[in-house]
Amino acid sequence: MSEFAITSRRDPHLWWRVGAICVSALLLLPIAAIAYLALTPSENIWPHLMATVLPDYLAQTAMLMFGVGALTFVIGTSSAWMITMYGFPGRKVLQWLLLVPLAMPTYIIAYTYVDMFEYAGPFQSSLREAAGWTAKSQYWFPDIRSIGGAIFVMSLVLSPYVFITARASFMRQSVGHLEGARTLGRSPAGVFFTVALPLARPAIAVGVSLAMMECLNDIGAVEHFGVRTLTLGIYSTWLGRGNLGGAAQIALVMFIFVLSLIHI
Predict the structure, then answer these.
(1) 3-state class of 179 per DSSP?
(2) pLDDT 10s digits, 180-234
(3) What is the spatial distance between Cα 121 and Cα 126, in angstroms, rounded to a whole number?
(4) How far out from the chain centre does Cα 253 lie?
(5) Distance CA 226, CA 243 (A)
(6) What burial class does residue 121 get, using C-beta atoms within 10 Å of its C-beta: 0-12 exposed, 13-18 middle, 19+ buried?
(7) pTM of the full predicted structure?
(8) Which among 98, 113, 139, 214 is least buried, having the fewest CB atoms inside 10 angstroms?
């Protein structure tokens, strides 16, 4: 009998381990390929990227990610707390409606919001008609095609990630802890901020990280809003400038963002 067969008899989980290693190796192949392309480019444009477009890509990507992370935290956590702890008409329907944005592609929602709220859209047109305004200089309206508009719309679409994880955590929390805090004189808001929210922090962090990762890899919506992110930089460097090595170098920078989110 071979040594491998004897070992496999002694360790019944050996094949599962071998399979897990093989699957992990397959998953790591794309990352290894990107690293190879980034470190051995046919034309090294990294100095040019650093001196021109990369700082803008980094700044706008960071602003978009942190803006979406903060707003999804507020929307997802508050809605999960209200759905879990309060009874009101339509609650059972609302808890499912809050998941609907996940069924819609982000870029479709982005196109819809821009068409509705831009200067020639139905909302501003109706506003001008009702107020008697004839020019944009007569009133102020936020520019939807901006990084602020992108943060707002993408947060609405991605907030279900936080809602799902936060609500699952709130539902698992012991009612005794919350009632004990109320007995000791805490207000409902105090119970939320001092007891429920700290206990739900790991689950909420996972939801926020998922939302930020989705925000990081989006290209259709950010391009429509005119936001220059790292993802858009990869697309333009590879297909626009024809430089695969430079695109891979930008992709490695994005990978650092992903590792940071996983570490958090």
Answers:
(1) helix
(2) 887 878 888 888 888 899 999 999 999 999 999 999 888 889 988 989 999 888 8
(3) 9
(4) 17
(5) 22
(6) middle
(7) 0.85
(8) 139
